[in-house]
UniProtKB/TrEMBL annotation:
Keywords: Disulfide bond, Glycoprotein, Glycosidase, Hydrolase, Membrane, Transmembrane, Transmembrane helix. Residues 319-407 form the Alpha galactosidase A C-terminal domain. The gene is LOC106472165. Homodimer. PANTHER family: ALPHA-GALACTOSIDASE, ALPHA-GALACTOSIDASE/ALPHA-N-ACETYLGALACTOSAMINIDASE. This is Alpha-galactosidase. The keyword 4Fe-4S does not apply. InterPro entries: Aldolase_TIM, GH, Glyco_hydro_27, Glyco_hydro_b, Melibiase/NAGA_C. SUPFAM superfamilies: (Trans)glycosidases, Glycosyl hydrolase domain.
Amino acid sequence: MKREYLCEWILVFVVFIIVNIPVLALNNGLALTPPMGWLSWERFRCNVDCKKYPKDCISEELFIEMADRIVSDGFKDAGYEYINIDDCWMKQEREPDGRLEPDPERFPHGIKFLADYMHSKGLKLGIYQDFGTYTCMGYPGIVNYMEQDAKTFAEWGVDMLKLDGCHSHPKDMDKGYILMGNHLNHTGHRMVYSCSWPFYQLHIGMEPNYALISKHCNLWRNFDDIQDSWDSIQKIIDFYGDNQEVMAPHAGPGHWNDPDMIIIGNYGLSYDQAKAQMAVWAVLAAPLLMSNDLRNLHAEFKDILQNKGVIAVNQDPLGIQGKRIFKKERIEIWRKPITPIIHGYHSFALLFLNRRTDGTPTQVKTAANELGLLNPSGYHVVDLFDGGDYGIVAPADHLSVMVNPTGVTIVKATALK
Ligand SMILES: *[C@@H]1O[C@H](CO)[C@@H](O)[C@H](O)[C@H]1NC(C)=O
């Protein structure tokens, strides 16, 4: 009798504890639209030889020079804000008390100095760590130091953390990434939290729990690192199209799928391919983190990166990830619902992607109602890259666009009253 009573009491107590655990779901108020900025990895990698490559090595000078360009060349006005350090910023070992420090030769003034510098320019600083024993390039990882590193980043005034996943067990990530998020939260200093959690799980054949991930991360990588080629861009586009029913529902204000950096202005993409990356990333509501050399950027690439209409599609407040709605003979159509919504009808960004290489633009002609343009009052359709005006398109009309080989045409169809 007594025993049973005790059991019951324990049960009540357990239930009490469970329902009273504070919900530490990610609710940091950050990244309500996809974060925009610059990240060192794709373009500058792990170049630590500042004697031989003073302008290209991972050093405080590199981040300061990029920040200065972001401000002076119009990127900040276009919305780019985060200046993010990737791997290879640390000393090879932690301090005797466990604290992380940057390499003293390449970051002589320390990370707090860099964060203060960014803040003085109206920008933000991001940093990189790894969920495992080491970072991908062999610097000290976060294992056993989660709480300390969270505090250190907060003390430095860092605004964003990319937590990579090399040298770790992806099965530990469902618990570990949440734990680190909680440590970040407990610092009281708000930081955008970028996770590599689903990528490493997919890599070993696990199915990521996107509902859980989107509760605990502001953005997350799903697929391979981007490389400097059209081939790499196409693989990412295919992955996002083929897996859109699984991934897209979890994107929204504060939580985004991250197809990796913008590589426009580097060596690998033609002018049309660069427009294609910008437009597809906009339609995917992807973070726009450029990895390029802003000190050596052709004007035509700068114009693509600063295209107001395409950026507005990416930054649309609804935060809906666009989807591929048509794919045939190497022509694809992607569609992202955006504002304004008129009488219940969304406006749309419509992206026509031509992956053919047969040397001349292809005409793509579609019935407006098949594109989802169902508003009886019609839509005003405008090309976002060349400003071309298609006039008013009603559901019974057709929309016909020309699309360059390995390129895109992206239009905005604004629902009319
Ligand atoms: C911590 O989490 C709580 C609960 O979700 C949230 O209200 C708060 O803004 C978060 N604080 C930081 C610093 O992220």
